Amino acid sequence: MGLRTKQTSEDGRHSTRAPSPLTQTMRLLRHHNLRVRKRLGQHFLVDGDVLERIITSAELTPTDLVIEIGPGLGVLTKQLAQQAGWVIAMELDNTLAAILKQRMAPYRNVTIINEDVLKIDPAALLETQKAKFPPEINSTGYKVVANLPYYITAPTLRYYLESSAKPEMMVVMVQKEVAEEIMAKPGRLSLLSISIQLYGEPTLITRVPAHSFYPAPKVDSAILKIIVYPQPSVNIADNENFFRVIRAGFSSARKQIGNSLAQGLGLPKVETLSLLAKAGIDAQRRAQTLTLKEWERLGQTFSTYRVEAS
Questions:
Q1: pLDDT at 213 over 70
Q2: What's the Cα-to-Cα distance from 96 to each of 33, 40, 44, 216, 263, rounded to whole Å?
Q3: Domain coordinates in residue numbering, the chain
Q4: Does domain 21-228 have CATH number 3.30.70.100?
Q5: What does the angle CA 264 – CA 269 – CA 274 come to, to the nearest 5 degrees?
Q6: 46-58 pLDDT, tens per residue?
Q7: Closest CA relative to residue 172, chosen from 136, 137, 134, 200
Q8: What is the CATH number of domain 239-309?
Q9: Sign of torsion, CA 259 260 262 263?
Q10: pTM summary value
Q11: CA 150 to CA 292: how far, in whole Å?
Q12: Cβ contact 112:91 at 8 Å
């Protein structure tokens, strides 16, 4: 159930406590003769206080189902298993997945999946695993908890938020600058921030310095909590067209929205200006200044044009 070590207390007597996450990580790496694979974004969280903040922020109960992405050596996985009803840990690295299965063997409420998280639809994953869950597990309102590899942060967030089986909450470790971008307000919005705020409300829990990981990355991180809405925050009749318009708007972010949309959508400038006027959007504005409601109007207006033009 975890490594333990002896420590001398102030009164001279020996007490027993669990070793720090850093000690656990170093022992496991040495024991299994492992080298960190930086190309897979492997930076193991070794700060106990940060681990506690993640667990607390997830507000876990014995009926919760948790999907953990990128569990690594399982330091966070063990904490999740002790708090949640069931944990599905998804690990891409074959060696780490094998170690996880060994380490998590005492926990009957943990399933290790050795697959690419972006190749397994969440709805399909839950369907294949639900036979294992005891009756009290709430599999329709699962939570995602993850120390995300930086290079798959945006794809993973969108993959789960756009799924037919969305989580009710996500508590994720991401690069600090990415967290700030996700939480941006109109004036600094981006394709990423719109993609997340469309589906949920992001909150910054705390910033996490680089030395909280082994090996330390070159940048600081942050814990981000996203409460997922039952429905998107704006009305979208055609998801594909909505993001097609947004991508076009941000294709030349420094340009005026009239120019960006005309170029990005391949439309005549005069038609683009007419559609912007119809949506009540000043053609001289920049994409980052538009609110979600204004993007909603643009999506609807340009969708109507596409139907008429066809």
A1: yes
A2: 12, 12, 12, 19, 46
A3: 21-228, 239-309
A4: no
A5: 110
A6: 899 999 999 999 9
A7: 200
A8: 1.10.8.100
A9: positive
A10: 0.87
A11: 26
A12: yes
